[in-house]
Design a protein that fits this description.
Chain lengths: ~90, ~325
């Protein structure tokens, strides 16, 4: 039996980050959504805000590609959160 | 009064600078230095920048003695540069711009060098030799664009120097180019290396592949010393740059040269000065505070751009590794 073609496989994952307010969730969205994925093809990522949550939806052709994208996103998210703690409104500190 | 904060992190330096109407209020910077023989790994450099950008930002505000509320605009390097590093710094710029409710402005890294060069030296309308590590070319302002008259068609002069330094394992501290220059001063024998000028353009990949192949053979056979190679490399590379700059000056009837970018220190300035004197032209150059990548140059370009009406929406604030100097409409000059 032939192995399924790799292009038919979709690795999906969803992440959700809770921020202290809708405004902060919008700010996180604004900081993290403008840049395209460095890799052309094989991965898509979408960010959406619902109330205080920043939701992230990934779809990738390979687990390895998904892992790289999620890892990179988490590094950047950490930077956004640290920036908010350092310079944001008092509830983030 | 207009105060602009600028974020720069496109190569191995991360800097945040603040300018107010032509005065640099603060300009702290950190440099990621790799061991000898190693290049700048993109992932590691980005990690370095993420780790220190916020403390550099705090330092910039403290040294300038201003509060976020005083800032009129947040400028950042949109490109060109190393992907992960540019993104990291842009993310912080976007976040503080939103937190502080200030307009955001994406700046071309090379234009940052040019505008800081113009501010510091007072050069009116110079032919610019842009020796930024990732870009390189001879630029002249004409009708709302920084027009590229000639450029390196393969690798930048800074890349060439960095990679040569790796071949003979020169230290990257403080920078490969600086160490090549120090060693070159002790060189005594000129070794013939490929000299490649093609009209207005220059090519450095040939000289680099030649030295990569021949360096170890020549050094092993005792035909020359590493100091001789450094001396010969600089003489050849910088002569090529002086030639194309002179050609651009003749083409434009220009009597001013401005060298910008991290490679544009010391020996290149000396060689360019000789050419300028022969032509009755004036050479402008900055010292290492401003010729090496820094945040204030982004702030200064941002200051010019903001006052002439540029802003960048969040959706358009994506960063790019390729961003030509002539893509920007220079609305702040006549």
């Amino acid at each position: 039996m032939a192995a399924p073609h790799s292009e038919t496989l979709h690795f999906k994952t969803v992440g959700s980050v809770f921020l202290f307010s809708n405004r902060l969730a919008q700010i996180a969205h604004g900081s993290l959504s403008p840049d395209a994925e460095p890799r052309k093809g094989g991965i898509s990522k979408e960010l959406r805000v619902t109330d205080n949550n920043l939701n992230v939806f990934w779809c990738a052709e390979e687990a390895r590609i998904l892992r790289v994208s999620v890892g990179s996103f988490l590094d950047h998210l950490a930077l956004v959160l640290e920036t908010m703690q350092a310079f944001g409104p008092s509830e983030t500190q | 009064m207009t105060i602009v904060i600028g974020f720069e992190g496109s190569a191995n330096k991360i800097g945040v600078g603040i300018v107010r109407d032509g005065a640099v209020l603060s300009n702290p910077r950190r440099t990621y230095i790799t061991p000898p023989g190693q290049g700048r790994f993109s992932v590691e450099t980005a990690k370095h920048h993420r780790a220190c950008v916020l403390s550099v930002l705090k330092e910039a505000l403290l040294q300038a003695g201003i509060q976020p509320a005083d800032i009129d605009c947040v400028a950042f390097t949109k490109g060109p540069g190393m992907g992960g590093s540019v993104v990291a710094v842009a993310i912080v710029a976007r976040t503080v711009a939103q937190l502080w409710k200030k307009p955001l402005l994406g700046v071309n890294h090379c234009i940052g060098h040019i505008e800081m060069g113009r501010l510091i030296t007072g050069a009116a309308n110079p032919t610019v030799l842009d020796c930024v590590e990732t870009q390189r070319g001879v630029i002249s302002y004409s009708e709302r664009r920084y027009r590229i008259f000639g450029e390196a068609i393969d690798i930048a002069v800074g890349n060439c120097l960095d990679r040569f330094a790796r071949v003979i394992k020169i230290s990257n501290d403080p920078s490969p180019g600086y160490n090549i220059e120090q060693m070159a001063k002790k060189g005594s024998q000129f070794v013939e290396l490929p000299y490649t000028v093609k009209g207005m353009d220059v090519s450095f990949s040939g000289i680099l592949s030649y030295t990569e192949e021949m360096a170890h053979k020549m050094l092993g056979a005792g035909e020359c010393t590493p100091e001789d190679l450094c001396f010969s490399l600089q003489e050849t590379l910088f002569s090529m740059l002086v030639e194309v700059t002179e050609r651009a000056m003749a083409h434009c009837g220009s009597r001013e040269v401005l060298i910008v970018g991290g490679v544009g220190c010391n020996l290149l300035q000396e060689m360019m000065e000789v050419m300028c004197q022969e032509r009755g032209a004036k050479l402008f150059a900055t010292d290492e505070r401003f010729c090496i990548d820094n945040g204030a140059m982004i702030a200064q370009a941002g200051w010019e751009m903001f006052r002439s009406g540029h802003v960048t929406s969040l959706e358009d604030s994506w960063v790019t590794q390729r961003f030509r100097t002539d893509e920007v409409e220079v609305t702040w000059r006549d």
